[in-house]
Amino acid sequence: MKKERSKRERVLTLYKFPLLYHSIKGRDFLLLLQTIIVSNLGRAIQSIAVTWYILSVFGGAKSGLYLAFYYSCFLIPLIMFGPIAGMFVDMHNRKNIIIITNVLRGVFLLILAGVTFLKFFPMLFLFLITIINAILIAFSVPAANACIPNIVKDKNLVKANSVISLNENLTFIIGASIAGFLYAKIGIVGVFTINGVLFVLTGVFVVFTNNYKVNKFLRERKVGVFSGRGLEFLKHFKNIFSSIKDGFVFIKSDRPIYLIIIFGLVINFFIYPFDSILLPKTIKFSLHLGASKYGIMQAIASVGGVLGLGLMTIIPKKNSVIYNFLKYGVFVLGVTVFLSGILLLPIGFKYLSAYGIYVIFCFLGFIRQVFDSLFMIPMKTIYQKRVPNEYRGRFYGFMNTMWIGLQPVSCGILGLVTSLNYFSTTSIMIALGVMIVIMSILIGITSDIKKLYLQINFG
Asked: Would you say residue 364 has pLDDT above 80?
């Protein structure tokens, strides 16, 4: 026992992360954290590199449509398999799920690297393997999240979750910062190869962990799709859609929550394609800058999000202040999008260089993410406090389905609009900014939302 404890202490000292020493039980958490960190790092690098690859292959005219298709290949499988994956994770060994899904993600990325290098239908394989990897992510993420309570003491769960959240943000910042550099130096084949190796390694990390003390429970509850109890699985599958419907019924019955969700969905509908399609196209085709500049801009925006998270911990939790974060935060969001479009007008290029406009874009992205954190965190608190425990799972099931489900729709519409060349990127940005500002005004004049924010205890 002493030898095992001494070994764990040496591992903790090696990582020089004091908080981990107090919040984890040992190497199981460290190895799981490594898996999460490497996975997020790989996803950040992949997202930036693939976006730039598609822009380079299809050019300014068609790249918006193909970017929309790429994001749809990733998001739609998450929507379809998310509810099924959660149930599957509860019925099978979570450790094995993490190992298998991560190793398979790595293998498929290595295959993608090979076919891209050989120029054997690279875009077809990119879209197909994106779909496959999205399905694997739908299973691996809930499996990893479900393992945390099994390897961390109850009193340390908040600390452990904080460590994970912080590392997720930091790894995205690092991944986005180096993605463009990697793409420029080793190309998309090199990026696929590195990510493939990283994901295989994450699966290897988990092999050395314990079984998270769930084997006995899983043996008692395990249900196979093709076993004699397969009908029970199908019954649970039907209950998923019934639960989503119940979540919608509850949301409709609570008018303030219903209004907040509607406004949130509309704002997300406008802002998601701006970030995922319009910004990268602007950096490449309007400002004529490289992939590294796009990655750095994404990293700077993420730093703004982290700063917003930090500010929420020190700002007084007065209801009027929190409400103003919502009202003015959405307004600032719209203004930053609007100004991004204004900068691309001829007058912008008259007084500023392309690099000068890029610097302002970085600043606007930073400000946007700061305010996004300032109004999104209290909104999550309202959901947690307002929604009764017995409805909470169904509420989040419906909300997450709608939240993610609208993203490929908005990307598809914007991708089609940009490919038709009827509207310039500048005019689209200005229009999106105006619509978000209108949403902020509507939020400000909606009395039900204001009353809700003044009633909730944010302390």
From this structure: yes
Give the start-to-end residue ranges of the domains of the chain. Answer: 23-222, 247-459
Report the C-alpha gap between 172 and 44 in whole angstroms.
5
Q: Write 444-452 long-range contacts (CB < 8 A, 24+).
A: 444/327, 446/259, 448/255, 448/256, 448/259, 449/256, 449/259, 449/260, 449/263, 449/326, 450/323, 451/256, 452/256, 452/257, 452/260, 452/382, 452/386
H helices within 157-224, ranges in order?
157-207, 215-221
Kindly report the CATH class assigned to 23-222: mainly alpha
Task: Give one word for 93, left, alpha or beta, with left for phi > 0 and alpha for psi -120 to 50.
Answer: beta
Query: What's the rounded Cα separation, in Å, for the pair 437 and 170?
Result: 30
Q: What percent of the chain has pLDDT over 70?
A: 80
pLDDT-derived band of residue 338, with 50, 70 and 90 as boundaries?
Answer: very high
What CA–CA distance (Å, rounded) separates 301 from 219? 45
**For 93-114, b where at least 16 C-beta lie within 10 A, e where not — what string?**
bbbebbbbbbbbbbebbbebbe
* Listed range (163-177, 266-280, 433-447) with the worst mean pLDDT: 163-177
Decide which of 113 and 382 is more confident.
113
CATH class of 247-459: mainly alpha
Structural contact between residues 179 and 291, judged by C-beta atoms closer than 8 angstroms: yes
Spatial CA neighbour of 87 closest among 397, 389, 354, 358: 397
Question: Each residue of 194-240: pLDDT tens digit?
Answer: 999 988 988 887 777 665 544 343 444 444 444 444 555 555 556 66
